[in-house]
């Protein structure tokens, strides 16, 4: 592995890279340690027993500490259906049951409101909003859905969305020819190759996420760039229909390399074709490519 490639995987990553900083390469960004005892498996008694059901998976905290953990606990319960639409959320009750301050509860509910999961109105209070109001492109909601009852639908929808976004991004990226990005993409392929040889699926997945994020960012379309977080989230959730990116294989590595070669040659059609091949679902999965749903 080149010195540059090694450095890129071990040095601290900027906020837009999606990779962990030094000392964090042994953790997926969504595989945080279990919540603290203060937030662990609370018992909601009385008329609200379902509020005691902790989310099925400790999703990745994009906020740290009690605030971030409470956001995830409540978010997971809403997305999983444990807290149904129009369900009232009483801040005082939440604070008591989870043993957190009013400030933590208030800030957590504000985050959930920004995601479209809850609404706060005078004389009405805070209530859970219906699915139609959720920001389904929010990375947290994508993750929560992927590990909840809606996991099959979420993974199918992500697969279909990637099938639409990434081939177009690859075609557009071929026309920009930025040498610095070309080198970074090549480095990511080199890292994936080395990681696969070492049996290091974690490093492979991190380099893969960096590769796809870079590709979308260099496409020169700001609306597509805005969707790069969705692709990163899709790469972090596994199961369901499995695309070529989800498993370290020689075929997957070869498609990544062909994308880089096509970009270097300025061949948009070849880059698009290679990306479509990369996104094809593995043969053992029933559906080979995303198809229209039956109505």
Polypeptide structure, described:
- With 295 residues, the chain is mainly alpha-helical.
- The chain contains twelve helices and three strands, in the order ααβααββαααααααα.
- Strands 1-3-2 form a three-stranded antiparallel beta sheet.
- A hairpin with a 3-residue loop joins strand 2 and strand 3.
- The protein is elongated and about 60 Å long.
Give helix and strand order, one letter per element, not per position: HHEHHEEHHHHHHHH
Strand order of the largest sheet: 1-3-2
Class based on secondary structure composition and strand pairing: mainly alpha
Stretches where pLDDT is under 50 for at least 5 consecutive residues are 2-62, 282-295
Mean pLDDT across the residues is 75
- Shape, principal axes of CA atoms: elongated
Percentage of residues in DSSP E strands: under 5%
| First and last CA, distance | 50 Å
In which range does the helix fraction lie? 40-55%
Major sheet details: 3 strands, antiparallel
Radius of gyration: 21 Å
How many extended strands? Answer: 3
Counting H and I runs of at least 4 residues, what is the number of helices? 12
Q: What is the subunit organization of this protein?
A: single chain
List the helices and strands and how they pair.
Blueprint: H1 3-10, H2 65-80, E1 88-89, H3 91-98, H4 102-114, E2 118-121, E3 125-128, H5 139-146, H6 151-173, H7 179-197, H8 201-217, H9 222-226, H10 228-236, H11 250-264, H12 268-279
Antiparallel strand pairs: 1-3, 2-3
